[in-house]
Structure formats: structure tokens, C-alpha cells
From TrEMBL, chain A:
This is ABC transporter ATP-binding protein. Residues 21-252 form the ABC transporter domain. Keywords: ATP-binding, Nucleotide-binding, Transport. Belongs to the ABC transporter superfamily. One of its GO terms (molecular function) is ATP binding. Pfam families: ABC_tran (PF00005). It comes from the Bacteria. CDD domains: ABC_NrtD_SsuB_transporters.
Length: 273, 377
């Protein structure tokens, strides 16, 4: 069984670590008894990385993201974000979070949705306007400022929710299957845009997905997870260049990485059948 | 097209016309002013000709127009000729009335089937169809009460009620001022506002949620008939005691709906606010209250009618000599049923306007809700 937990590259400079998890575990108390959602997760995510978490449902990839975001509290081990606890990081607005659905407020126009975090932080009106304009540009939504979410397509709604997560300029972007509900073509398009955006802004991105091509195409590092209990089974460094046109997905290099991810996923599953 | 196939309403109307012709005359022999044969023929023609024409017409709109004229012309002639002959109508009179009503029914059915392109026409039709519907309730009421000579005290004809309203405008205005502008509006605003504030408090303080909601439940079960006299003892005969009854009645629907509405926002949206480190009040005002708006407006609409009922009923238990409930209870004692009906009509009108205003504000405020914009979630 493949259980080698690839310890975060020891060579990486400690100060560069954005997320550091040590022996992290989380057990949910449910009516059917305790459920181990995460077990013994050791991971360091460095500044500027694009890390994908991939695995079948119930492998804890979303839970791990929620622990980083302080939406769940770990029951074992430690985790730090920019050297702070998740709670402190959340209070310091250290990250932007993109959910599975756009979760835009239907009573607000797109620009007011994007400006929502800025209102809560309490920025000046002028500063809000400038940032809304900049992030709407970044996700190619200029011209749709006055529309309501329900007047936009699913892909545009999700782009608006990415703009909202970018609006307050946190260095860390947490994305929980943001394109899961979209069709293949829109998804390809948004993947391209996301890569471009990541290069432009130099943010650290944690990206949860269960699509192998998506994970390989986007990431600098792929974390393969397996369920019951949710744990990391493999960490794969991508050898793909930073510049990635869509047809890179047919290159042998790409296919080799995809094959390794698939093997990792299969290994995590093997004991079930 | 829809109008080319014969409709059963028009067919039945023609059958009724035939039976009416066979069982003439329309009025009893003792009638003071018997109907001329010319009038009778005109009524039958007004029903039969449009009925036959509607089979041949190609456009639904044209046949609806012809049916409209025929039905209402016949009804008008029937009612006009009954004056002086109250209680003398025989079967043909009612058969022809029924035939005219069937034509109006067909006319409304045709109008409902029209899918107009322009927005103005659509709005006009949306108002016209219920107007014809309502008019026929009044027409049948008027023709039956007068034609069959229904005792005035049992059910006065609408024309008598309208005349009473016209003659008693100052009294009605004073009653409306007393009951609606004082008791109802004050009680409504205070009741709704306090229900809302307590709902927020119950949301903020778990102890209140556990302790207060069950007690609020009990308050809502208090019988208004029992509470009203006690409020009169506490707050006196003036409108304040009626407002107190309205407050008790409107408080609980607002409390329950607001508490339910505050849980209406999704988990994802609340998680989102948490990732922004948003505090309680920011989340309340930017997420939870807007999401609760459809529930809150529901309570406002329920309360708009409850408040009116509460204030009127409360006036039965001691009041100064003005007010809608007072007028109803005293005039029924004096057998002035037309005045009672006049108050009922005014109350119905005021209640509809009140409800309509709240509903309009709701449409403007919750324009985003799928039920208002008519779209998917």
C-alpha cells in the first residue's frame, strides 16, 4: 500500500510557509458515533504555490480547507496560517474563500456583491469602488456591475464570487470545488483564466477538486487524499512549465503526472474492494 | 382557434332562452308595471344574437366584445325593469339572468385565453377579468334580492347599500378615523415592531428563545373575545384599548415569522460572512434580515387583516359612540342592516387597500425573490 506521506520539501525556506499542518486530525461527533474526517495530516504550503487537493468524496479535502479557514476546529495536532492560528488569520482576513456555489446575495447587484467584504472591513467608498473595478476587470466581468446574480449564467456567477474573494487582497485563496457545478467548456475557460490570474497576482491558492485533469493542469503541487479516515496518501510535484496552454493536457508529461495521480487515488481505494 | 368550437356556456344560455320563452311572462300577473313585450324581446335578442354570433366569429377578442355587450345589456334591462315589481319575478326572469351570466362567463373565459403582446393590454386584461367577475356577483345579488323580493333585513340589494354609503359619508368617515387611523394603524405598527424587536432579542439571547417563544405561543392562543373586555377595563373606552387588542393579535405572527426568517439564510452564506470576520450585527443587517424579508412581509400581510378584525371586534365591548365595530353592533340592534353592510363594505375596502399597500412594498423590497421575479431560485 502506498502510504508514503511526502513531508513538505524540507528544503523550502521556513519563512515562506503560508500554511503549516502538523499531525492534524479532526473527529466529528455525530449521532452515529465519532467520524474521523482527518487523520495525521502533515503539510506545508509555501507562498506562491498552487496546491490542489484531490480525492474521492469523504476524503477530508474540503474539511482540511475549512480547517485552514477556521470554519472547523481540529481535534488533534496543530495548524498555522502565516504563523497565526486559523482564528487569528480569519480575524486578520488573511484569506479569501470561494465556495462550491457562487453564494452571491440575490438582493445585491454584482458590484455590491463583490464589494460586500470591503463594506464589512469598512473601507472608504472611493477605495471600495476602485477595488471593485479592479477585481471585476481581473475576472472579465466589466459591464455587468449593475446586473443581479440571477441575471447571469452559472460561470459568470462563479467568476463574480472569485472577484469577491479577491477584492480584499488576501494573499491566500481557498477554493472548494469552485467549478464543480459548471459544464466542461466553461470549466476549461475558467481554469485558463484562473491560471492567468494566479500568475498576475502571485497569490497562494489551495484548490479542492475531484477532477484529475483540472488538478494536474492548474497545480504546482497535487495532494492526493483518501477516505476513512481522511489522510494524505501522496504529494506530487508538477514538472509542467508555468506557462500552460490548454493543449498541454495532451503532452506526455501531463499524462504521466495524471497517471501518477490516478495510481495514488486507486491505492487509497484498494482496501475497500 | 379556441372560439371556433362551440362552448357549453353559450349552448346552455340558448337552451335557457328557449325555456324562458316557453314559460313567459317574466313577471307575475299582479305586477304593477308589467314588462312590455318589446323589452322582453330585446332581452332575449341581447342574449341570443351574441350567443349565435360568437359561434361564427373568428377572433376571440371580437366574440368576447359581443358577448360582453349582450350579457351586460340584458342584465341591465332585467334589473331596470324589476323596479316597482319587487318580488314579482317568475322563472323566465331568473332563466334569462342565468343565460346572461353564462354569456359573461364565456366572455371572461375568452378574455383569459388571450395572450396579448403589449404590456398595457396585459395589465388592462388583468384588471378587467376580475372586474367582470366582481360585477356579476353584484348583478346577481341585485337581481335576485329584488326579483325574488328577499326581505330587506335578510339581505339588502347592493344598490340600497350603495345609497346608504352615499348618504352616510360623514358617519363612515368618522368611524374609519376612529377605528382604522387610530386603533388599527397604531396597534399594527406597535405590534409588528415589538414582535420584530423581540424576535431579534430572542435570536441574540438563547435564554429568551427558550423561555419566550412558548409563552408567546400561549399569548397567540388567547381568545380575542375574552381579552377585549379586559383591555377596556385596563385602558378605557377610547381607541387605546382597541389598539392594545390589535397589538396582542399582531405581535405573535410577527415574532414567529421573523424568528423563522432569521434561520432562512443558507449555511454557505453564513460561512462566507464568517470568513470575512463579520460581526453579529453586520451579518444580521447584510445577510440575515434581507434573507428574512419574505417571512417578515408574510407576517405584515397576515397582520394587516388581523389588525382590522381585532379592532372592529374589540369595539363590541365598550367604546365611545363612534367606530366601525360600535356602528355595526348598534345598527344591527336597530335593524338598520344597510348601515351594517355599508360598514362591512368600507371595512373590506380599507382592508384590501391596506393589504395591497403592504403587498406593493413587498414586491419592491423582495424583487429578488424567485416568487416575485417569477424565475428559478
Amino acid at each position: 500500500m502506498l502510504m508514503t506521506v511526502n513531508q513538505a520539501t524540507a528544503t523550502s525556506v521556513e519563512r515562506n510557509a503560508v500554511v503549516e499542518a502538523r499531525q492534524l486530525g479532526l473527529t466529528f461527533q455525530t449521532n452515529d458515533g465519532p467520524v474521523r474526517a482527518l487523520s495525521d495530516v502533515n503539510l506545508t504550503i509555501n507562498k506562491g504555490e498552487f496546491v490542489s487537493f484531490i480525492g474521492p468524496s469523504g476524503c477530508g479535502k474540503t474539511t482540511f480547507l475549512r480547517v485552514i479557514a477556521d470554519l472547523e476546529q481540529p481535534t488533534e495536532g496543530t495548524i498555522s496560517i502565516n504563523g497565526m492560528t486559523p482564528e487569528q488569520a480569519r480575524q486578520a482576513r488573511a484569506y479569501g474563500y470561494v465556495f462550491q456555489a457562487a453564494a452571491l446575495f440575490p438582493w445585491r447587484t454584482i458590484e455590491n456583491n463583490v464589494g460586500l467584504p470591503l463594506e464589512i472591513i469598512g473601507l472608504s467608498k472611493a477605495e471600495q469602488q476602485a477595488r471593485i473595478k479592479r477585481t471585476m476587470d481581473l475576472v472579465n466581468l466589466t459591464g455587468f456591475e449593475k446586473k443581479y446574480p440571477w441575471q447571469l449564467s452559472g460561470g459568470m456567477q462563479q467568476r463574480a464570487s472569485i472577484a469577491r474573494a479577491l477584492a480584499f487582497d488576501a494573499d491566500l485563496l481557498l477554493m472548494d470545488e469552485p467549478f464543480g457545478a459548471l459544464d466542461e467548456i466553461v470549466r476549461d475557460h475558467l481554469n485558463e483564466q484562473l491560471l492567468r490570474l494566479w500568475r498576475q497576482t502571485n497569490k497562494t491558492i489551495c484548490f479542492v477538486t475531484h477532477s484529475i485533469p483540472e488538478a494536474v493542469y492548474l497545480s504546482t503541487r497535487i495532494v492526493v487524499m483518501s477516505p476513512r479516515p481522511g489522510r494524505v496518501t501522496d504529494v506530487i510535484e508538477s514538472t509542467l512549465p508555468a506557462e500552460r496552454p490548454l493543449d498541454i493536457r495532451e503532452s506526455p508529461e501531463f499524462l504521466a503526472i495524471a497517471a501518477r495521480v490516478r495510481d495514488g487515488l486507486r491505492a487509497g481505494h484498494s482496501y475497500e474492494d | 382557434m379556441m372560439n371556433s368550437k362551440p362552448s357549453w356556456q353559450v349552448g346552455l344560455a340558448l337552451v335557457l332562452c328557449a325555456i324562458a320563452m316557453a314559460t313567459m311572462p317574466m313577471l307575475a300577473n299582479e305586477a304593477v308595471a308589467p314588462m312590455s313585450s318589446g323589452t322582453t324581446t330585446l332581452v332575449i335578442a341581447l342574449i341570443a344574437l351574441p350567443a349565435v354570433a360568437s359561434f361564427a366569429m373568428f377572433s376571440g377578442l371580437a366574440s368576447a366584445a359581443v358577448l360582453f355587450i349582450g350579457a351586460h345589456g340584458a342584465a341591465w334591462l332585467l334589473i331596470a325593469n324589476i323596479s316597482g315589481n319587487e318580488g314579482m319575478a317568475r322563472m323566465p326572469f331568473f332563466l334569462l339572468l342565468a343565460a346572461a351570466w353564462l354569456l359573461a362567463w364565456r366572455c371572461v373565459a375568452l378574455l383569459s385565453a388571450i395572450r396579448p403582446l403589449s404590456k398595457q393590454v396585459r395589465t388592462f386584461l388583468r384588471l378587467l377579468i376580475p372586474a367582470i367577475f366582481g360585477a356579476w356577483i353584484l348583478i346577481i345579488w341585485e337581481a335576485v334580492t329584488r326579483g325574488a323580493g328577499v326581505p330587506f333585513i335578510l339581505l339588502p340589494p347592493p344598490s340600497a347599500i350603495a345609497a346608504r354609503i352615499g348618504n352616510s359619508l360623514p358617519i363612515l368617515a368618522a368611524d374609519v378615523r376612529q377605528t382604522i387611523f387610530k386603533a388599527v394603524l397604531f396597534g399594527y405598527f406597535v405590534g409588528c415592531a415589538s414582535g420584530f424587536v423581540v424576535a431579534i432579542l430572542a435570536d441574540r439571547v438563547p435564554f429568551l428563545r427558550r423561555g419566550l417563544l412558548p409563552i408567546g405561543n400561549m399569548v397567540s392562543a388567547l381568545p380575542i373575545i375574552g381579552v377585549a373586555p379586559i383591555m377596556v377595563i385596563w385602558f378605557g373606552f377610547e381607541w387605546q384599548s382597541k389598539a392594545a387588542v390589535v397589538i396582542i393579535m399582531t405581535f405573535f405572527p410577527m415574532l414567529v415569522n421573523t424568528v423563522a426568517g432569521l434561520t432562512a439564510s443558507g449555511h454557505m452564506e453564513r460561512d462566507l460572512m464568517r470568513t470575512y470576520a463579520s460581526n453579529y450585527w453586520q451579518t444580521l443587517f447584510k445577510l440575515r434580515l434581507p434573507a428574512a424579508a419574505p417571512f417578515i412581509f408574510n407576517a405584515l400581510k397576515i397582520n394587516s387583516t388581523l389588525a382590522l378584525i381585532g379592532a372592529i371586534v374589540a369595539e363590541f365591548f365598550g367604546t365611545p359612540i363612534v367606530g366601525m365595530g360600535f356602528r355595526i353592533s348598534t345598527e344591527i340592534g336597530r335593524m338598520n342592516v344597510d348601515m351594517v353592510w355599508a360598514e362591512i363594505a368600507v371595512a373590506a375596502l380599507a382592508g384590501s387597500v391596506f393589504y395591497g399597500v403592504v403587498a406593493l412594498i413587498e414586491r419592491a423590497t423582495t424583487f429578488w425573490h424567485p416568487s416575485v421575479r417569477g424565475g428559478r431560485a
